[in-house]
Write a structure and sequence with these properties.
Rossmann fold, two-stranded antiparallel ribbon, binds adenosine monophosphate, alpha/beta, transport, ETF_b, 13 strands, single chain
Length: 249
């Protein structure tokens, strides 16, 4: 069983981002970049399936600038067998990524595609769903448990009202939620080993996909700063302030 895992290079989750002064986007110059946290969970799950003898090959794929090779090397260090970079300097919208992944699914014929539920830079939460629709594959999003057996994936997923369990025929698309697993710590020997693993590069045109943006960002501005809070000595003062000053009671 072959698993394809999609990994995105994003601004590290611990970095506080700022918008560019001209409002054209987020300033990413000299910022620490990392693998999208939900994608780390996706790679970890695929590698665990390989370690348990269920999967035979894990292929990591990233679409983006040449530096996304570093993200792919991290996936290889976690335990992916080989990696593919679809190199592009365009701003890649979820639809473009989904089209690229669909073309790769046709080429690689994986039994399972695992993606993160969302990328923490654009928070779109769209690519997995779009891929499933374009490739006509069953999908289970926000997976908190994944069991593969008898050509099926059983997926527990977190929904508004609680938990839901879906059974999907393979091949299928699964997107990861935070509780699916805790990714391993990547050791130095595995980073060294990852340097020797196969990493192929292709261009969107090689997959016959036009990735030109369909959306135009008009303006990016930081959120309005919240007014400073205050401490009150007792409940009486609190009620007074809410009634007389704020007029909310
Ligand atoms: P999004 O729909 O942008 O929130 O992204 C959801 C998931 O799609 C991510 O967690 C990744 O698994 C995958 N994905 C999005 N963009 C890319 C990309 N440029 N390269 C590889 N995978 C991506």
């Amino acid at each position: 069983m072959k698993i394809l895992v999609a990994v995105k290079r994003v601004v590290d989750a611990n970095v506080k981002v700022q918008s560019r002064s001209d409002g054209t986007g987020v300033d990413t110059v000299n910022l620490k970049m990392s693998m999208n946290p939900f994608d780390e969970i996706a790679v970890e799950e695929a590698v665990r399936l390989k370690e348990s003898g269920i999967a035979t090959e894990v292929v990591a794929v990233s679409a983006g600038v040449v530096q996304a090779q570093e993200t792919l090397r991290t996936a290889l260090a976690i335990g992916a067998d080989r990696a593919i970079l679809i190199e592009s300097n365009e701003v890649l919208e979820p639809l473009a990524v989904a089209k690229l992944l669909k073309a790769l699914v046709e080429k690689e014929q994986p039994h399972l595609v695992i993606l993160g539920k969302q990328a923490i830079d654009d928070d779109s939460n769209q690519t997995g769903q779009m891929l499933a629709a374009l490739a006509n594959l069953p999908q289970a999003t926000f997976a908190s448990k994944l069991v593969i057996a008898g050509g099926k994936a059983t997926v527990a997923r977190e929904v508004d009202g609680g938990a839901e369990t879906l059974s999907l025929m393979l091949p299928a698309v699964v997107t990861t939620d935070l509780r699916l697993n805790e990714p391993r710590y990547v050791t130095l020997p595995s980073i060294m080993k990852a340097k020797k693993k196969q990493l192929d590069t292709m261009k969107p045109a090689d997959l016959g996909v036009d990735v030109s943006p369909r959306l135009k960002t008009l303006k990016v501005v930081p959120p309005v700063r919240r007014a400073q809070g205050m401490k009150v000595p007792d409940v009486k003062t609190l009620v007074e302030k809410l009634t007389i000053e704020a007029k909310v009671l």
